[in-house]
Amino acid sequence: MLINKYDRLDFIINNACQTIQRTNEYYQHLFTNEKLTNYSLLSADEQKILDGNFQFYQQLIPCSNRIQDISYPLALPSTSNDMIVETSSTISNTSFDVNQQPIDFRSTNSWLLRLDELSTNEINEVLAINTLAPFILNSKLKILMTEKHPNPDSIKFIINVSAMEGSFSRVNKTDRHPHTNAAKAALNMMTRTSAIDYKRSNIYMVSVDTGWINDEKPIEKAMKAMINHDFQTPLDEEDAAARVLDPIIDTYRQLAKGETNINIPYGCFLKDYVKCDW
């Protein structure tokens, strides 16, 4: 669909990450509000974006018997995490954090689980979102960055948003959340393997660590750490975005200055704006 609709693509940023699978109730406010929305009141730009989603859903309908109409909540997990089943009362649909995300009041989550405690459903979902989806996008959309691109010799970028969980060189590795570790390690290996190939087409592929911006522990444990130790993560979302975009911005800043001998990073893992060990 994208290949037929557009004639060029300059940047791919694989930022659709999932660390913890939430319950169905966690997303309920989104589906409720979606059904109440009067789409005729939305701006032209918003309607254009949604129209693209509707076209995508319509193409899926003939391929799946479970999708009855375009309002089907595709983001809803097909089954709850079968290792952490708690009632809807553990998820607050009215309490939101500073980022307007629902607060998950479950006493535990997959960030604390070991390999034999993880559900197959969550393992599959984390690998699909963090690893399989970037593989598909980076491979199938390459044509928009090469053959179909009006200026195939221009500089393009693929940013694979990763994390230190995917690092093999990290000394203090816990025995928890092996599925997220494996997903990010696989994403890093794609960068390590394919970046040299994509560079031949002037596509610069890197993995970037966002930095520590979220405390993934259950809310009770996170609040205790904050109260007892005055703990909060050292970075925020703006810091993370700056790190993700820096390879692109820094390159274009140098080009704007007229510099020609630019060392554009590729095939590496960037942390705090510099290369780090895999």
TrEMBL record:
SUPFAM superfamilies to which the protein is assigned, alphabetical: NAD(P)-binding Rossmann-fold domains
GO CC terms in record: cytoplasm
InterPro entries cross-referenced by the UniProt entry: Fungal_SecMetab_SDRs, NAD(P)-bd_dom_sf
One GO MF term: oxidoreductase activity
Name by which UniProt lists this protein: Uncharacterized protein
Native source organism of the sequence: Adineta steineri
